[in-house]
Amino acid sequence: MTTVSKSAHDFVSPLVRDLPKSGIRDFFDIVASRKDVISLGIGEPDFLTPWHIREKAIASLERGMTRYTSNLGMPELRQELAGYMRDTFRAEYDWQTEILVTVGVSEGFDIAMRAVLSPGDEVLYHEPCFVAYAPLIRMAQGVPVAVETFRRDEFRLTVEELEKKVTPRTRVLLVSFPNNPTGATLRREDTEALADFVIRHDLLLVSDEVYSELTYEGGRHSLAAIPRLRDRLIFLNGFSKAWSMTGFRLGYVCAPAPLTDAMMKIHQYCMMCASSTAQMAGIEALQHGAADVAAMRESYHLRRNYIVASLNEMGLDCFMPRGAFYVFPSIQSTGLDSTTFALRLLNECNVACIPGTAFGACGAGFLRCAYATGMEQLKEAMDRMAAFVQRL
Amino acid sequence: MDTLLELLKKNARESDATLAKKLALTETEVRERIAAYERDGVIRGYQAVLNQDRIEQTDVRAVIELRIRPEREGGFDRIANRIGKFPQVESMCLMSGAYDLLLFVKGQSLQQVAQFVSAHLASLDGVLSTTTHFILKTYKDQGVLMEGVSHDDRLQVCP
Description:
The structure holds two protein chains of two kinds. By secondary structure, chain A is α/β, with parallel strands linked by helices. Chain A has helices spanning 14-17, 23-32, 51-62, 75-89, 104-116, 133-139, 159-165, 188-200, 257-270, 276-288, 290-313, 338-349, 375-391; strands at 38-39, 99-102, 122-127, 143-148, 170-175, 204-208, 233-238, 251-254, 326-327, 351-352, 354-355, 367-370. Chain A has two domains: 14-48 and 291-391, Aspartate Aminotransferase, domain 1, CATH 3.90.1150.10; 51-288, Type I PLP-dependent aspartate aminotransferase-like (Major domain) (Aspartate Aminotransferase, domain 2), CATH 3.40.640.10. Chain A has a seven-stranded mixed sheet with strand order 2-8-7-6-5-3-4, with helices on both faces. In chain A, strands 9-12-11 form a three-stranded antiparallel sheet, covered by helices on one side. In chain A, strands 1-10 form a two-stranded parallel sheet. In chain A, α5 packs across α6. By secondary structure, chain B is α+β, with helices and mostly antiparallel strands. Chain B has two domains: 3-39, Orthogonal Bundle (Arc Repressor Mutant, subunit A); 52-138, Alpha-Beta Plaits (2-Layer Sandwich), CATH 3.30.70. In chain B, 31% of the residues lie in helices and 21% in strands. Chain B contains five helices and six strands. Chain B has helices spanning 3-10, 16-23, 27-39, 77-84, 110-121; strands at residues 60-68, 89-94, 101-107, 127-134, 140-141, 144-145. Chain B has a four-stranded antiparallel sheet. A two-stranded antiparallel sheet of chain B has the order 5-6. Chains A and B meet through α2 and α11 of A and α2 of B.
C-alpha cells in the first residue's frame, strides 16, 4: 500500500485556507519596500502614550506586578470602567459580572462572535469597515452579510439598507461608529432607528465604539446609552485610540451577565487575562488621562480641518467626517479606480493612502487617508497629492 | 486660550494659509487676528527655540536669585523694570518664596557674568542679596526637549 504523506500546506484547515488575506497587507508590502514614503495609511495615533501612563506601567513592573490577574481583569480597572461607562454614556454595568477586560477590541469582537454564533448564523455588518470583522465572523462559523453605506448619507448606516439584507437566519447586527475608514458618526436619530430595527427583528447588537473619544462635533451618540438595548447589546471599546495605547493591546467588553459569562469562558481558555502591565496603564489612563484625550482630540480636529479643506481644494470630494482620524475622499473625478490611484500616488509621489476597496467592495472610487500624522508630513503629502491630481 | 495663539505658540512659522485651513477661517481673518494680537501686545515676539549645545558659541548662562527691598510706592516693579533694561537679562520673574526676582542671564564668560552681577545687580540700591547658579546643560526649553528627536516608528501601513 502506498501512502502519500501530507505537506505542511495540507495541514491548514479549509476554513483558514479560504480566508482572504487583508487587502491592507498587500499594500503594506509594497509600501515597506520603498524609502522616504509619507504614509497616510497608518490606522494608529501618532502620539506616544502619555508619559504618566507609561510611567505607571514602569512603576508596576518595578513593584513586581507581573502575575496573572483575575480572568475578568483587575477589580480596580473594572471598577474604573464601570465609572467611565456611567459618566460617559449613562450606562450602568456591574463591574463584577458585566465587564470583561480583553487583549484589545479585536479579541473582544472575536470572543463575542464565538460566544453567540452557531454555524450558518448570519451577521449583518456595514461596509466600508475595519478589515477584521468578516474574517472573524467566518472563523466563528458565522456568515458575514455586508450592508452598504453611501457617500450621500455621509456613510451612516440606514435601516432602509439593513431591511434589504435581514433574513430569518440573521442573528447579530454589528455596528462600528465613529467609523474606520470613513470617519462617519451616528446621529441620535440613527441610533434610535437602529435600536428599533434590532428589537423589531429580535437581533443581538454588537457595537464597536473604539473611536468614540475621538468625536469632534455633533455629540457622541453611543448605542450603550439606549436603555431598551441593554439586554441585547455587546459593547466593545478599548484604550488604543483614545489614549494612544495601541501596543498595550487593551480593550474591554460590557454586556449583560449571561453574555459576559459566555465570553469569559472563551477568554479564560485562550487568553487567561490581559497583560498586567497594560491593565495598570489602563487604570492610570481612566483616573488621570482625561486631559490627554482632550488635547489629542483637539490636535486631530485641527488636522482634520486642514486635510478636508486641502482635499476639496484639489477637487477630491470629501465630506467633513465627525470622528476617528480618517477622511475618505472620492477620487471618481480623476477617472482612476482606487487601486490605480493609490499605486500611482505611491509610485509617482511617494505618498501612501489605502484604496477604499480594502475596506469592502463599496469603497470603490474612494481612498482612506489617515491624518494621525505630523503636520509637516501632512502638508507635504497634500502638496504632492494636489500636484499629482493636477497632472492627471 | 485662543486656539490660534496655541498654534502660534507651538509653531510661530506656521503659514497663514495652513492656520486658516486648520481653524476653518479665511487667510485674511487669520492675518487680522494676528495683527490685533500684535497691536494689543498679546503677542510680544517670535523666536526660534535653539539647542544651545548644538551651536558653536561660547556664551554662558546663569540663573540669579535676587532678594530686593520692595519700595513704598510701586513694590518691585520699578527695580524690576530697571534690571530688565540690561540686555544680558533674557528672562525675569517675580517669585514667591525665599527670594524675589529670578533672572536668566547671558554672558560671554563666567567672568563677564560675575562682573555683571557685582557691578550692576548687587550694587543696585534696594538689592539685598544675589545668588548665582551657572547653567551646565539644558534638557528642555519652552516645552521642547533638546535631545531625543522623536521618530515615527509605527508600521507604515496598518488597518
